[in-house]
Amino acid sequence: LDTARKCFGRMSHHDMVSWSTIIAGYGSHGKGETALEMYMEFLQSGLEPNHVIFLSILSACGHNGLVDQGLSLFHSMTKDFGIEPKLEHRACIVDLFSRAGRVEDAYDFYKRMFPEPTVEVLGILLDACRTSGNVELGDIIATEIFMLKPVDAGNYLQLAHSCASVARWDGVGEAWIQMRSLGLKKLPAWSFIELHGTITTFFTDHSSHPQYEDIVSVLKSLSKDIRNLGVDFKSSQIHLIS
């Protein structure tokens, strides 16, 4: 962050991209108050905020528990700048309340501000119910999710995890039974790479790729070379060996 701030300070011109990036950077690294200070500097620069700037600062407030500040900024979008909040901004407020443990307020805001049901936002609320142990509201939200996407395996897994978090093992079993009865399966994690116009996919713990052996051999060779340079791989992170 210090290096990013120095680079930002050395720029001859600050545009919307640089401002939103530095604000988002502070917000996502636990520096919510600094993100707010940068937002105030942005306003003093003479520029007017757009949707992206507000998304960055609202997200910063959400990640740092700055509920009152986030709500004030959300209302200022329309009041002070005539900007109509998009779905992403409204979702930020749901997340803001949820992270602060105010799940009832988050759900009330969702009901008032989302004229159309939105599965992704309901997912935020269901996770918040799991974290806070709000079983009753969690059941209501789960029902709404299944009405929107009754054959999505991810929804049943999310419900199972929510039930498990409050030791509702009957609910866990019911979620898995419903998945099996609908023939649903959890999709494995995967990634892809595009090379010379061809897209190749890779699935977790799969060795079905026709060049699997060659890929593994190259990775082992690269790992050996990297370790020889003094880098050690542990716990999915890279640590320099002193």
What would you say this structure looks like, in words?
By secondary structure, the protein is mainly α. The protein has three domains: 1-85; 103-187, Serine Threonine Protein Phosphatase 5, Tetratricopeptide repeat (Alpha Horseshoe); 189-242, no CATH class. 65% of the residues lie in helices and 8% in strands. It has twelve helices and four strands; from the N terminus they run αααααααααααββαββ. The protein has helices at 2-10, 16-28, 32-44, 51-63, 67-81, 87-99, 103-113, 119-132, 135-148, 153-165, 169-181, 212-228, and strands at residues 190-195, 198-203, 231-234, 237-240. The strands form two sheets. Strands 1-2 form a two-stranded antiparallel ribbon. Strands 3-4 form a two-stranded antiparallel sheet. Strand 1 and strand 2 (198-203) form a beta hairpin. It starts with a helix and ends with a strand. 27% of the residues are buried. Residues 235-242 have low confidence and may be disordered.
Produce a short descriptive summary.
By secondary structure, this protein is mainly alpha-helical.
Question: Strand arrangement, largest sheet?
Answer: 1-2
C-alpha termini separation: 24 Å
How many domains? The number is: 3
Radius of gyration: 23 Å
Overall outline = extended
Low-confidence stretches: 235-242
Biggest beta-sheet profile? 2 strands, antiparallel
Share in helix: 55-70%
User: Structural class per helix/strand content?
Assistant: mainly alpha
- State the helix count: 12
The percentage of residues in β strands lies in 5-15%
- E-strand count: 4
